[in-house]
Design brief:
Blueprint: H1 2-20, E1 28-36, E2 45-52, H2 57-62, E3 67-69, E4 79-82, E5 85-86, E6 93-99, E7 118-125
Parallel strand pairs: 1-7
Antiparallel strand pairs: 1-2, 3-4, 4-5, 6-7
């Protein structure tokens, strides 16, 4: 009898503990990658991709385009080339990135994406 009570108590605790735990974190999720090639003359692209938890704009972009990193301005982790279109300091042409329409605080290699985010790259020529 005592053994049955212990088993029932143990099962009750397991059920309660199981209900109280948070669901596991989502390991993969969808984001959208967009690229506007501007003065390079290539057509714009918009594509949904699945990324791993912890993915950055750079990671998501690499699932859509060949991507090269390099020290364009300040850091060797920067995106230098997307789909063969390179930043060109001599022509004052640069890649800019935004997430969900915001450029503030967005880093191609530090910002962590969330489910449903949109990463947008724009190739722009400044000073025209």
């Amino acid at each position: 009898m005592a053994a049955r009570r212990h088993v029932a108590l143990l099962l009750g605790c397991l059920v309660i503990a199981g209900c109280a735990t948070a669901p596991p974190a989502q390991r993969t999720f969808d984001v959208t990658v967009e690229a506007d090639f501007g003065p390079a003359g290539k057509p714009a692209v918009r594509q949904a991709v699945q990324v791993e938890s912890g993915a950055t704009p750079q990671d998501a972009t690499a699932k859509v385009f060949p991507l090269e990193k390099g020290s364009v301005c300040c850091d060797p982790r920067e995106v230098a080339t997307i789909d063969g279109v390179a930043a060109d300091p001599a022509e004052n042409r640069w890649w800019t990135v935004s997430v969900n329409g915001s450029k503030k605080g967005v880093s191609p290699y530090k910002t962590r994406l969330k489910p449903g985010d949109t990463v947008r790259w724009e190739y722009k020529q400044y000073g025209q």
